[in-house]
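FIELD: query
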Amino acid sequence: MDAALSERDKMLSGAPYDPGCPELKAMRHKAQSLMRDYNQTIMGDEARAGLMTALLGTWNGAVIRPPFHVDYGAHIHFGPGCFVNFNCVILDVCDVRIGARTQIGPNVQILTADHPRDAAARARLEEWGRPITLGADVWIGGGAIILPGVTIGDGAIIGAGAVVTRDVAAGVTVIGNPARTLNCKDNN
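FIELD: result
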């Protein structure tokens, strides 16, 4: 890895990085301030648009019901016509790209952040991430968890409570923990 890269550049590339560096601490502080303000609004507040524009990499008018929680916000990109229900958590240490008209249920977690499996490495506070991409017209049921590095294809459905550990093809429905494809016979 190039020593000249900033910790943010390392983070966004998926390399190990120092989350305690001043730049990342300042970005999290800004995001926390904007989330605090946003989470105090109610439907129809004129302040919402400005807060989401300042927080997110690309807002595109997404309807986001508070409370809404992010690490940085700047690495989250919504396509047009998206909807996010109450209590969504997006840990955006890498890019999160959400396609047009995607709907996200309550209590969904979208987690790009990852940590070492080795306790000694965790003790050194190492961390990294992998980007997440949600296609257009995806529906994510309440309480689902999307893990680092996952891509979900256009029109896919993620069942409520599913834990998505692998990519999901376009038009496929997955359920369970870990998420698996719902077969037609499972639908009866």
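FIELD: remark
Residues 38 and 48 are 6 Å apart (CA to CA).
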